[in-house]
């Protein structure tokens, strides 16, 4: 998920619009073909969201799992 967010951010940075955002639609759990450690994937997703925020890109999340609030906010919630 972190890699996909960074990839989307790369394309957004090329746009001239002043406000940029990503709408992430997910089942809630980060996944990647190159990494299987859930802890690393969550950390990487959180880091990607923070990196995007620092460059002016907001990330919003729509999750398909009704129980996701319990765990998604740990890596997508910005304090």
**SSE series:** HEHEH
Described by the principal axes of the CA atoms, the overall outline is globular
How many runs of DSSP E, i.e. beta strands?
2
Largest sheet report: 2 strands, parallel
Order of strands, main sheet, comes to 1-2
Give the class from helix and strand content and strand pairing. alpha+beta
Total of domains: 1
> What fraction strand?
15-25%
| Ends distance | 20 Å
CA gyration radius, whole angstroms:
12 Å
Helix content: 40-55%
Query: Which residues form runs of ≥5 with pLDDT under 50?
Result: none
Number of helices: 3
Short description, anyone?
The chain is α+β, with helices and mostly antiparallel strands.
Q: How would you explain this protein's 3D organization?
A:
There is one protein chain. The chain is of the alpha+beta class. The chain has one domain. Helix content is 47%, strand content 18%. It has helices spanning 2-13, 38-54, 69-76, and strands at residues 20-26, 57-63. A two-stranded parallel sheet has the order 1-2. Helix 1 runs parallel beside helix 2 (38-54). It is globular. The mean pLDDT is 87.
Features:
79 residues, two-stranded parallel ribbon, single chain, 2 strands, alpha+beta
Protein topology:
Elements (H helix, E strand, L loop, with lengths): L1 H12 L6 E7 L11 H17 L2 E7 L5 H8 L3
Parallel strand pairs: 1-2
Helix pairs in contact: 1-2
């Amino acid at each position: 998920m972190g890699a996909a967010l960074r990839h989307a951010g790369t394309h957004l940075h090329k746009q001239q619009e002043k406000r940029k955002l990503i709408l992430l639609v997910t089942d809630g759990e980060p996944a990647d073909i190159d990494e299987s450690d859930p802890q690393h994937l969550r950390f990487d997703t959180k880091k990607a969201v923070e990196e995007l925020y620092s460059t002016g890109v907001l990330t919003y999340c729509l999750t398909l799992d009704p129980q996701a609030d319990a765990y998604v906010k740990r890596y997508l919630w910005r304090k």
